[in-house]
Design a protein that fits this description.
Shape: globular
Radius of gyration: 16 Å
Strand content: under 5%
Distance between the termini: 16 Å
Structural class: mainly alpha
Helix content: 55-70%
Order of helices and strands: HHHHHHHH
Largest sheet: none
Length: about 150
């Protein structure tokens, strides 16, 4: 599954609502140039995951607001991006990167164990019920795409 896209229009709107120029936002984020902010706003590039929560803090918004997802029912990938993590950074006791990737992709299979859910919850800094809902959403999205392509 493709990772959720940053909504450039929302990024720009939040920046403007804060009264910040691209240059000022770039400075807050310790970027070398405001060009990076422009390419994110226009959708020419996506920020690295570590920038999503930094952008949200700088702009006073929820990180999920900046992503093209339903903030009340996000897939697992959106929770990961909101936490500022790359897929290979979501690991912990009882959780391999590959197990996490399969869940984020929404691949069908047995429900993840309580230990795996707890490890993801800790890695992403969200509660267990949010992780369970995100796994269900990821699987639902995967099934919908598979049905569409089939």
């Amino acid at each position: 599954m493709a990772r959720p896209l940053l909504r450039g229009d929302r990024l720009q709107a939040a920046r403007e609502a804060m009264g910040l120029s691209r240059e000022e936002l770039a400075t807050k984020l310790e970027l070398s140039s405001p060009v990076r902010v422009r390419v994110w706003e226009t959708g020419l590039e996506r920020p690295r995951p570590r920038f999503v929560p930094r952008l949200a803090v700088a702009l006073g918004v929820n990180p999920l607001y900046l992503l093209d997802v339903d903030p009340d029912d996000p897939p697992l990938a959106a929770l990961r991006l909101a936490a500022g993590l790359a897929t290979n950074e979501v690991t912990g006791p009882g959780l391999s990167v590959m197990t996490y990737v399969r869940l984020e992709d929404g691949r069908p299979g047995a429900d993840p164990s309580a230990k795996v859910i707890a490890a993801i919850s800790q890695a992403l800094g969200v509660d267990i019920s949010r992780v369970k809902a995100a796994v269900r959403r990821s699987r639902s999205d995967h099934a919908a795409i598979a049905a569409y392509q089939g």
